[in-house]
Design goal:
mainly alpha, about 70% helix, single chain, about 0% strand
Protein backbone atom coordinates (compact mmCIF):
# COMPACT_ATOMS: atom_id res chain seq x y z
CA UNK A 1 0.00 0.00 0.00
CA UNK A 2 2.91 2.36 0.68
CA UNK A 3 4.38 1.65 -2.74
CA UNK A 4 1.53 3.20 -4.73
CA UNK A 5 2.04 6.79 -3.48
CA UNK A 6 5.80 6.42 -3.85
CA UNK A 7 5.44 5.22 -7.44
CA UNK A 8 2.89 7.96 -8.15
CA UNK A 9 5.33 10.60 -6.93
CA UNK A 10 8.09 8.96 -8.96
CA UNK A 11 5.94 9.19 -12.11
CA UNK A 12 5.26 12.84 -11.39
CA UNK A 13 8.92 13.59 -10.76
CA UNK A 14 10.47 11.63 -13.62
CA UNK A 15 7.92 12.48 -16.28
CA UNK A 16 6.74 15.87 -15.01
CA UNK A 17 10.01 17.64 -14.24
CA UNK A 18 10.93 18.10 -17.94
CA UNK A 19 7.99 20.53 -18.14
CA UNK A 20 10.20 23.00 -16.29
CA UNK A 21 11.77 23.66 -19.67
CA UNK A 22 8.51 25.40 -20.61
CA UNK A 23 8.90 28.06 -17.89
CA UNK A 24 10.39 30.49 -20.37
CA UNK A 25 7.32 30.46 -22.59
CA UNK A 26 4.47 29.51 -20.23
CA UNK A 27 3.16 30.85 -16.95
CA UNK A 28 3.90 28.91 -13.76
CA UNK A 29 0.34 27.59 -13.67
CA UNK A 30 0.51 26.31 -17.25
CA UNK A 31 3.96 24.83 -16.63
CA UNK A 32 2.65 22.82 -13.67
CA UNK A 33 -0.37 21.72 -15.72
CA UNK A 34 1.94 20.59 -18.52
CA UNK A 35 4.01 18.62 -16.02
CA UNK A 36 0.91 16.90 -14.69
CA UNK A 37 -0.25 16.00 -18.18
CA UNK A 38 3.19 14.70 -19.14
CA UNK A 39 3.28 12.54 -16.00
CA UNK A 40 0.06 10.75 -16.98
CA UNK A 41 1.00 7.19 -17.89
CA UNK A 42 -0.69 3.83 -17.94
CA UNK A 43 0.03 1.92 -21.14
CA UNK A 44 3.81 2.21 -20.75
CA UNK A 45 3.59 1.14 -17.10
CA UNK A 46 1.44 -1.88 -17.96
CA UNK A 47 3.85 -2.96 -20.70
CA UNK A 48 6.89 -2.48 -18.44
CA UNK A 49 5.27 -4.46 -15.63
CA UNK A 50 4.35 -7.27 -18.01
CA UNK A 51 7.89 -7.50 -19.33
CA UNK A 52 9.44 -7.21 -15.88
CA UNK A 53 7.14 -9.90 -14.50
CA UNK A 54 7.86 -12.27 -17.39
CA UNK A 55 11.60 -11.79 -16.84
CA UNK A 56 11.19 -12.35 -13.11
CA UNK A 57 12.53 -8.89 -12.27
CA UNK A 58 9.30 -7.48 -10.84
CA UNK A 59 7.20 -9.21 -8.18
CA UNK A 60 3.43 -9.40 -8.48
CA UNK A 61 3.02 -6.96 -5.56
CA UNK A 62 5.38 -4.41 -7.08
CA UNK A 63 3.72 -4.79 -10.48
CA UNK A 64 0.30 -4.23 -8.95
CA UNK A 65 1.56 -1.13 -7.15
CA UNK A 66 3.08 0.25 -10.36
CA UNK A 67 -0.15 -0.33 -12.28
CA UNK A 68 -2.13 1.24 -9.43
CA UNK A 69 0.09 4.32 -9.56
CA UNK A 70 -0.33 4.47 -13.34
CA UNK A 71 -4.09 4.22 -12.99
CA UNK A 72 -4.15 6.98 -10.39
CA UNK A 73 -1.99 9.15 -12.65
CA UNK A 74 -4.52 8.76 -15.45
CA UNK A 75 -7.40 9.62 -13.14
CA UNK A 76 -5.90 12.42 -11.04
CA UNK A 77 -3.25 14.28 -13.03
CA UNK A 78 -5.49 15.45 -15.91
CA UNK A 79 -8.16 16.52 -13.41
CA UNK A 80 -5.63 18.52 -11.41
CA UNK A 81 -4.24 20.07 -14.60
CA UNK A 82 -7.72 21.09 -15.74
CA UNK A 83 -8.43 22.59 -12.31
CA UNK A 84 -5.18 24.58 -12.54
CA UNK A 85 -6.13 25.86 -15.97
CA UNK A 86 -9.63 26.81 -14.85
CA UNK A 87 -11.60 24.54 -17.17
CA UNK A 88 -11.39 24.17 -20.92
CA UNK A 89 -10.92 27.04 -23.32
CA UNK A 90 -14.25 26.25 -24.97
CA UNK A 91 -16.07 26.80 -21.68
CA UNK A 92 -14.33 30.16 -21.16
CA UNK A 93 -15.22 31.26 -24.69
CA UNK A 94 -18.89 30.32 -24.31
CA UNK A 95 -18.71 27.25 -26.57
CA UNK A 96 -19.80 23.73 -25.64
Amino acid sequence: MVRVPIFLLALLFVRGIPALLYRQVLSNRRTVAAGLLQATSLSFVVAAVQIGTLLGEISAATGAALIGAGLLSVMLFPLLALMLLGGSGAERNGHE
